[in-house]
Fold each of these.
Amino acid sequence: MQIRKKIVVTYITLSGLSTLLLCIVVFFLFKQNNEYYFLKRLQDRAKIVASIHYQNDPEKARYYRELKKHGLEELIDEDDFVLKVNGHNSFEYNTDLHLPHEFYDDVMTTGKGWVKQDEHRYYYAQLFEENGLKYMVIVTAKDRRGNTSTIYITRILVFGGIAFIILAYFFGRFLAKRVINPVSSITKEVKRISASNLHNRLPLPGNDDSDEITDLTKTFNDMLDRLETSFEIQANFINNASHELKTPITTILAESEIALLKERSSEEYTQALEAINKQASRLSNLTESLLKLTQTGYDGTKQVQDITRIDELLLDVKCDLDRLYPNNRISIKLNDMPEDESLLMLPCNRPLLELAVGNIISNGVKYSDNEEVFVSLNANSKNIKIVITDIGIGIPPEDIPYLYEPFFRGKKASRYTGYGLGLPLAMKIIRMHGGELIIQSEPDKGTVVNIVFHKSNIRKSNVKS
């Protein structure tokens, strides 16, 4: 069932139940009110009948008869009886009255009472005392007017309830339209948006007040912003990757075609093979970097497998870099080590984390022209912090926002060999481990890179026991 129909049905159901409950309450209150005032009229007649019975003066008796006849509203099939009470539980009985014994017992006990018989006939009885004698006065009449009024009010409630249900149907449709139309408009607009027009945005509602529909529209627009950015990054990545991969492939094809055009000397073949090997190595390194970049992510779903001491990891990275850059001037400072060795332990994917830290340190070596690179480590109960400092070319302020985009290379960095993948890859790996990468740099003075692993962000649940 559509939400629009659900709203209409729910509105009609709730309105119907509310109307039914209201009609029932009104009906019973009206009926009780009729009954109460009819009994009050019988009570007034009982007092007048008693007054007539007590009077020894014929004139006064006649006055009360006239008052009863002309001063009070006429009742249907009205009759009255006066029964003498002989004792506590004894009274004269009238054979014309066919009332239950419980009624008489109640009157004798409480001094008054009433009972209803034959649907519309009421009997009201009350004890009166005069000159030491007790009497039970019983007045009876039919309340046909009250019954007619009850039928009339019942008809009003029934037809009024049906009319209100019909109105509730149209009100429910109007309400559903007011509620669903904005959502339908959002759905229609979203269906129009595809990968080719991600720049389109949903129009905000005309009202200035912030409501759920406005929040939903803003949420969709924010999602479209993120999608558009992701598509742009993906498109740029594909374009740059295609360009970077095309260059060595083109060189390899050109060298091989030239070498095959005619017979050549062994030296020429050697030069051609060396050029092909160089470009093939470049292609291999680039492909490996791309694979590692795509295998890491921002959501931390990469399985963490090891618990590693960070100081040992730094020393292993230094050994690897010593083989790659034999003349490097990397200095690792481990002077400020905590007494508790457990503070140096970090759940991680060690090969990936070594790759990330090695990329950052090797960048310091490369872009400082093999000047000194200082690596310091600090650990406490809250975080583990690695600081890498070089005195190289630095990073211009305008390049900093683009450092983590794959294949991006600043103007100064373009003089050095590289693909622009090392830092984006390192950032992804560090973020995957719950860490934070902070870069501070000044052109021609150097760069300071802070790698901070907050203990509260480390996913210990991913550690295999």
Amino acid sequence: MLNFTSLRVFLLLVFVLGCVLNQTVYAQDENTVLLYTFEASSGDVVTDLSGNGNDGQLMGSTEWGGGKLGSGLVFGGNGPRDFVEIPDSDSLDLETGLTIEMWVFLNTASSAGGTGATKESSYKFGPRHDRKVLLRMTTTSAGWVEGILFSDTVLQLNKWIHTAATYDATSDVSKVYIDGELDAEGTIGGDIVLNDRELWLGRGSNPFLDGKIDELRISNVARTQKEVQQLMNLGIDGVLAVTPQDKLATSWGKLKKDFRK
């Protein structure tokens, strides 16, 4: 028989566990199509944690180095033509919505635009020559030249900055977030036009990133500002510390066992 004090403690533990689990549903769910922590310290393959098998191949002289949180990838710019190449897959066909989130560290400005994540002629997001970031898409309503949203903020050099972009084909609204804050918003319209091209990190069609990338998530929906801020503040490992699918039974069982002591 539980006394009143024990019951209150028990209910408090249930509440805390519920809050933790509620925080973790955003990082790896059915809408996450690619998830990189870049915590491998060697080798030439970047492992996708989303479960979709979108592993990336390091190209040029791309190398592992210090990231925002642990390890990251270091790109040397146009000289060595460093980038990561991810083969095309159905999961990377982001037709009705997208979110691209990453930490970026710029050594110098890019020679052109979209040196973060690029599926050329379908969608791309990343820094450009003026150190603003752009979201560019080809949609059923806008061509590759017209379907663009620029950030208002100019990114500082030699500093880690969190960047994110979203698009919702239902509302036609595109957004850019800098360090978790809404920085620019616009209307593009239409579904994203799909293609069979590979996905690149650290390059566009011609420009290459001179800097570093860490903590990358791509989703097939427009994430909310709360979700963007959560991943930025906790990091992928922090958000995935407890997952409802894998650890609920273990956590709940341990909670009950500890409570009975």
Amino acid sequence: MSSPEFSYSQDVLHQLAADVLRHARELGATACEADVSEAFGLSVTVRKREIETIEYNRDKGIGVTTYLGQRRGHASTSDFSPQALRATVAAAVSIARLTAADPCAGLPEAKLLAKEGKNLDLYHPWHLPVEEAMTIARQCEEAAFAVSPLIRNSEGASVSLQHSQFVFANSLGFMGGFPTSRHFISCAVIAGKGNRMQRDDWHTSARDWTKLAAPAAVGDYAARRALSRLGAKRLKTRQVPVLFEAPLASGLIGSLVHAVSGGSLYRKTSFLLDSIGQKIFPSHVHISERPHLPGAMASSPFDDDGVATHDREVVSAGVLQGYFLSTYSARKLGMQTTGNAGGCHNLIVRPGSLDFRGLLRKMGTGLLVTELLGQGVNYVTGDYSRGAAGYWVEDGEIAYPVQEITIAGNLREMFQGIAAIGNDILVRGSKQVGSILIERMTVAGR
């Protein structure tokens, strides 16, 4: 099913992909891949009760990858005319003639390709007039200002919708594609005045716009988060337990994904080389990949190579069971693709029995981190150092906000030191995880 707002039907996209494959065959390519897509969207931002931006986007493109044996060439175009299609394929073939052979280049094994389509409920069009989007954004920001007179400024409230569709095909006979939608409401505000100001934000996202949080609730929560940070202090350097709030815990899981992804492994730029079968987490940590969850943000029946995706256990009782590999990276490692070309698909970290307050009580005295700054992660060594802000916790209760601190450790030790995972599960993109309590890290301050 396609939205009437798309310029092309799925049948037309299929035909364009078939034409690309035919042109490549006629020009002598031994194999070919084609990716045909289009997208449109609307984004509205309100700041201090006034419309700041209204943006429309409409994009389309065709990517062509051709192979001459194990020589690869790629070209792309946004012109769907027959002449442009032929010229783009010709350019890809010409590039392939000039490149060196790569023994790992080429299409996946035919037996690994997805054989049948699955309706994963990923497309929920939001026919949102711009005037209604403006109203929603205003409601969101107004709810933030209504919380307290101390909410004095705003970085804006935004509403956006994005609809897209694609068809991917290759010369092994695979052809598949579907439409998707992503919707988003966010708010960022500033509390306080002078040199005693704090900002914070919140957002909600979903494929189905009816499942978004209420705009007023998003603005209200963003304001309360900003207010709670007023009067933040610095800490003296110490070693303490650290609790990563759920939105940041997904970043820790993202660090795992990066470290055990094919590119990092075959380039030998990961601290988790040759780690399959190793216990890298405590026994209570279990991480699953579930690519076929209906309506989920990272669901797909196949990866960017056309390889069928499957449910699997990535970490079981703390032991790493598998990497994240595309066809190419798997060949570089002498392994088989895991269906992860383009990324992971709905990583679910099994929650423990404690809610957020239970995690605070378990931590006792330590640091709750709600914001991270900078990119201080060395994936070769696992060394981790990030600017941070959050709250100091004493006797299981939040005592006061803190800022201008750095948290440091080593990811291998941090993973081993996971004391608990909360049941306050939050979905952020391809990851679903609750807050994560680390037994001990260095907190550097004044």
Amino acid sequence: MSGTVSFLYYIVLKNNYDNIAWFYDRLSRSIFGNAQINAQLYLLHAIPPHTSIVIVGGGTGWILEEITRIHPSGLTITYIDASSKMMALAKKRNIGENKVTFIVSPVEEVVFDSKYDVALTPFFFDNFKDDSLQKIFAYIDAHLSNKSIWLYCDFQNTGNLWHGAVLKIMYVFFRLSCGIEAAHLPDIESCFIRHHYRSLAQKTFLKGFIVSGIYERG
């Protein structure tokens, strides 16, 4: 019994996606089709050439190859994910002539040595409670340049009963399999407002269930 308890306790504290890295992309497509993919692809046209980018929670790294299709060279990318198994998959991606630094760590534990022009946080903030979200958002924001661009996509509350049911199931699944701390969507929009970002463009997918936003600081 004690061994079982300690194992479950470890999973709760782990708070990453090691356990499901091998089938995460297939799981996403089986539930949402291409909606999560398209929500992220929508953001990539906003990446200027010859810029520095921090990607937080990028998962298996397929997005690196899509970025490379647009910018085969000239980008400096820091790719952060807490899951070592997700990172192992990401390191196999084609990055062209871009420079990519891979860091396996919670973002709030990363010691940055520079500031970035672009932040990309795809389906990342929904893992956290509001108090944790505020701290993590502020930490990323502190390492962006004055006129930085923040590319964001995630789920949002719509009032739709089906959407609400899917969210509940998702949170139960990811809390059990990945130890995420959240049980419901945090107030992400308030972070952008508090840190003085303005919306440049926005698009929704899956009847409003997923939202992608391009924000500019200042």
